[in-house]
UniProtKB/TrEMBL annotation:
This is Dihydrodipicolinate synthase family protein. PROSITE patterns: DHDPS_2. Keywords: Lyase, Schiff base. Pfam families: DHDPS. Belongs to the DapA family.
Length: 302
């Protein structure tokens, strides 16, 4: 069945929101609320909770539910909230999806079940079971580097044929596969998941992005989209280059821990990543402080 529902409200720039923590690894919900307000003020158009950047698989189910509830309450309808509810156990994914719906989330997203090499039938059954349990729109999360499952037109097709499936979060460098899916399902929303290919993904048919470094440099994503939409590809490429300069530096420091440090923009303390991740050292923090100054300068020149 081809989707008839209008999902255009999700064609936005989403922050793959970090999960602020205290030194004892407890969730700092007060800082989380402040972070949402701060990012809204910088132009962020939506929030993706408890994904890779939010340390979703290092959180308890209760923590994931409370994070979604906090973000929904803070955003208060000003921006859509997507809850990542994927995990290895179908029953847990169902519970998280139900809780996200009760909290007021606008959609849920799921990585496929991981670790065991589940069959295609088992993977599709996992998604279908979650859709039976919630009325929320569902986003397939394609991140093969972590799950070893590659969603292309063939594997994703039986899900994309269903009206409840909103689209795909494509965190992969395979732009051919992305283009084939966008061509086959133009009514769906395809979200770019790798910040370094945001502009390229727009050319391949993506109409939204969910990004780690949107936490850090949302102004550059907004500018890239604006230039692309007006046909100024040389200008858009220059801004994408600025995005990639930041991405390159964050990757060298450990992208998730560096993004979490910079998400506070020198004002909010979002804490370190949960163990077994190692914290940044003082030298790395100083290097990231210098990078932050450069990000501010680039944003001021837009």
């Amino acid at each position: 069945m081809v989707a008839s529902q209008d999902y255009s409200r999700f064609e936005r720039i989403f922050s793959a929101l970090v999960s602020p923590m205290r030194a004892d690894e407890s969730i700092d919900f007060a800082t989380l609320s402040k972070l949402v307000e701060f990012q809204l003020g910088r132009g962020v158009e939506g929030f993706y909770c408890c994904g890779s950047s939010g340390e979703g698989l290092l959180l308890s189910l209760d923590e994931r539910t409370e994070i979604v509830r906090t973000v929904v309450q803070t955003a208060a309808g000003r921006a859509p909230v997507i809850a990542h509810v994927g995990t290895i156990r179908t029953a847990d994914a169902i519970a998280l999806a139900k809780d996200a719906e009760a909290a007021g989330a606008d959609a849920v997203s799921l990585i496929p079940p991981y670790y065991y090499r589940f069959t295609a039938e088992e993977i599709l059954g996992y998604y279908n079971r979650v859709m039976e349990a919630t009325s929320l729109p569902v986003i397939i999360y394609n991140i093969p580097q972590f799950t070893q499952v590659q969603f292309d037109k063939t594997l994703a097709g039986p899900l994309l044929d269903q009206e409840q499936v909103l689209g795909v979060k494509h965190t992969a460098h395979d732009l051919y596969s992305l283009e084939r899916m966008t061509a086959a399902y133009p009514e769906k929303v395809f979200f770019n998941g790798f910040d370094e290919i945001y502009l390229s993904s727009l050319a391949a048919g993506a109409r939204a992005t969910i990004g780690t470094t949107v936490n850090v440099q949302p102004e550059l994503f907004l500018r890239t989209r604006a230039l692309f939409e007006t046909g100024d590809l040389p200008g858009a490429r220059l801004v994408q280059e600025q995005i990639n300069n930041t991405v390159e530096e964050l990757v060298s420091q450990g992208v998730f821990r560096a993004a979490k440090y910079l998400a506070g923009d020198g004002v909010l303390d979002c804490g370190d990543l949960r163990e077994p991740f190692k914290p940044l050292n003082d030298v790395q923090r100083k290097e990231l402080d210098r990078l932050l100054a450069g990000i501010h300068e680039a944003a001021a020149q837009l």
